[in-house]
Amino acid sequence: MAIPLLAYAPSCPNQRVDALGARDDEAIVWSSDDQFSPTDMGNLINAAYRQIFFHAFKWDREIVLESQLRNRQITVRDFIRGLLLSNTFIDSFYNKNSNYRFVEHCVQKVLGRRVYSNAEKIAWSAVVMTKGVKGFVDDLLNSDEYIENFGENTVPYQRRRILPSRAIGETPFNITSPRYDAYYRDQLGFPQPIWQEAVRNFRSYDRQPKTGDPSLFLNMAKSISPKAAKPDLTSIYNIDIYKTVPYRRS
């Protein structure tokens, strides 16, 4: 039997106060309401991948969900739900972390803020335990906080980065929050120092020399050691002028 979400309080009285402006960290807000061209929709989709996956490789992309979003068959909230329930996200964030750590990742990525306290982590962890990942994701996306801040068509972004009386905001959670928990990082051997004896230079394919380029023959040219002929060092006193100079007979 699923239990309701446990009650938890913010860590300070002004946690839920609305920002003074449209957004308090001047983040770029991506919404399908004002994205009409294919390029604009592509930028919105990439922003969603950065928010949920931090970086999506070619094999991590959900092509079917992208097509449905481009054709307006699903909303941005449905697209975010699909990314959270994808094999990539489940394997990278749920299977490699405890429930508490998984809750931290999801709250940061979906609600755009850090968890308030351990009480909130325990409350959402109980939802993961009783309803499973899908039920937890649904409750998170159906929460009043998500609907009020992002609605159906806005990609979640990090909120509450700029705080009063602070010149520098908080570091983005994508940088401060490792994907794997400490136990799994230790099992995988992270971090691993990489040492190289020689520095290797990478050249893109379009800058690599083609057939007939003189640089391809540079090593061959260096291997050749041409030697100039030695000059004749015969002294002028050893030359018989009379025999050397042609003499014309009449």
UniProtKB/TrEMBL annotation:
<keyword id="KW-0042">Antenna complex</keyword>
<dbReference type="Pfam" id="PF00427">
    <property type="entry name" value="PBS_linker_poly"/>
</dbReference>
<dbReference type="GO" id="GO:0012505">
    <property type="term" value="C:endomembrane system"/>
</dbReference>
<dbReference type="InterPro" id="IPR016470">
    <property type="entry name" value="Phycobilisome"/>
</dbReference>
<dbReference type="InterPro" id="IPR001297">
    <property type="entry name" value="PBS_linker_dom"/>
</dbReference>
<dbReference type="InterPro" id="IPR038255">
    <property type="entry name" value="PBS_linker_sf"/>
</dbReference>
<keyword id="KW-0793">Thylakoid</keyword>
<dbReference type="GO" id="GO:0030089">
    <property type="term" value="C:phycobilisome"/>
</dbReference>
<dbReference type="GO" id="GO:0015979">
    <property type="term" value="P:photosynthesis"/>
</dbReference>
<protein>
    <submittedName>
        <fullName>Phycobilisome linker polypeptide</fullName>
    </submittedName>
</protein>
<keyword id="KW-0605">Phycobilisome</keyword>
<comment type="similarity">
    <text>Belongs to the phycobilisome linker protein family.</text>
</comment>
<feature type="domain" description="PBS-linker">
    <location>
        <begin position="10"/>
        <end position="187"/>
    </location>
</feature>
<keyword id="KW-0472">Membrane</keyword>
